[in-house]
Amino acid sequence: MNNRFRIPGLLAERLVEHGLSLPSLLRLAGLPPGFFQQEKIHATTSELFALWRSIGELSTDPAIGLKLGSEPRFERYQPTAIAAVCSRNFGDSLQRVARYKQLTCPEEIRVVIDGPEASVDFTYLQAEESEPDVLVDLVLAWILSIGHRGTDGQIAPVRLELTRPLHQRELLESHFGCRVRFKAPRNAIVFRTSDLSRPFLTHNADLLEAIGAQLENELQQRDAGSDVSEQVKRTLKRSLAGKRPTLQDVAQELGMSPRTLQRRLTDAEATFQRLVEDTRRELAHHYLTRSTIELNETAFLLGYEDSNSFFRAFQEWEGTTPGEWRARHRTGMVFR
């Protein structure tokens, strides 16, 4: 996982098209004047949030995030988006987005299936504050735009969940075509599980093979520089919510047999059980520093069957309860 966000080179052009002054924007965000002139533009999570918060403050258009997330011009798509649109179906598309997003930023895209519903949400792993509303609008609109383009508008969300207070309901419900739940514990877009198998009319096997091969090669190069424990933990972080992945599940995701994965873990003096617990502990700290996520929601996101199981595990890790730990780490937490 990269520790910095890769900013698309076309972003500056698109912001100007939407009437924003780049010098004013960069001053407000506290970024250097030559930020967009770099050959490769990267930003920390805090810099990314400052940029998008400033976009929301400077723009007079309340729908700017939605518009930027719904790019109609295919030639402006980034490789990950092209691979997503060329996928076999919506579920395949979401899996590719979640997998290839690792190449560009410290961000996890989680697809959680809960009976008849499948939700998609974004987790900023190094965030110390809540993500700007305009950025949330952009990423959720981006997911919907991929589904719309692939199915010629045949996919419609069940609902949108937003942590923010009630604001711009009519605008949001008009764009997403569904009801919006405000003051929710997460920012997510929810679809019908049956939509995951909806075929993409834009499926292009040849283009997908060409782009996918390059992206997979980048992932392999990245993984070559990390040990198997890091690879397993990255995979677990994408798949813990609502379930506890098995060694077989992780091996399949990593493209190896369970026996090979077990052998490599043994060689690295690691155990799958310990990596599961380490991953849960790291994610627990992340979720507990976010004031909008309830404790029972945290237990679900970590793959525990019930809150009591999570409370017992956390007590063993930290010697205190999740609620007490959260209270001691309130400094710097952002409340909505």
TrEMBL record:
GO terms for molecular function: DNA-binding transcription factor activity; transcription cis-regulatory region binding. The keyword Transcription regulation applies. Gene3D superfamilies: Homeodomain-like (1.10.10.60). Residues 230-328 form the HTH araC/xylS-type domain. One of its GO terms (cellular component) is cytosol. SMART domains: HTH_ARAC. SUPFAM superfamilies: Homeodomain-like. Keywords: DNA-binding, Transcription, Transcription regulation. InterPro entries: AraC-type_N, Homeodomain-like_sf, HTH_AraC. It holds the Pfam family Arabinose_bd. This is AraC family transcriptional regulator ligand-binding domain-containing protein.
